[in-house]
Amino acid sequence: MNYFALFAGVLVLLAAGVHAIIGGREVGLLKPEGTGKSAEVWVQTLAGWHWVSVGQTLAAVTFLVVGVTEWIPDEQLILGGLAIYFGSTGVVWLMTVLVAGRGVEGRWYRLGQWMYCLFIALLAFFAAG
């Protein structure tokens, strides 16, 4: 049993659920009145939002499969890929917060998904051992 992968899988699965349900509701609050370009942009935003939820869910399942089974022959390659994915996502998120988040009070912790991503990347790195 790979406890680092198992822990990452549980955390990512929880985050995916929160993202899909609570975050989906928050994005729903942004729905514009009427139709037109703003409605189109909102639909694209909502679809993109749930695209991330699907990606998080698939990553969680992958972590959990690696954590509790021996089904995947090259676990280090898969875990390395997940570490790169979450690490690069964390860096991009942090850079976005730094550049576009100016004027957002407490942006470091209020927009702190970068910490989650880097923590999951670290767990994936240790899981790849």
Descriptive tags:
mainly alpha, 129 residues
Average residue-wise pLDDT: 92
Q: What letter string, H or E per element, gives the SSE order?
A: HHHHH
* Count of helix runs: 5
Number of strands: 0
Distance between the termini: 13 Å
Oligomer: single chain
Tell me the overall shape: globular
Helix percentage: over 70%
Query: Taking Cα atoms only, what radius of gyration do you get, to the nearest Å?
Result: 17 Å
Structural class: mainly alpha
Uncertain segments of ≥5 residues (pLDDT<50)? none
- How much of the sequence lies in strands comes to under 5%
Write a concise synopsis of the structure shown.
The chain is mainly alpha-helical. The chain is 81% helix and 0% strand. The protein contains five helices and no strands.
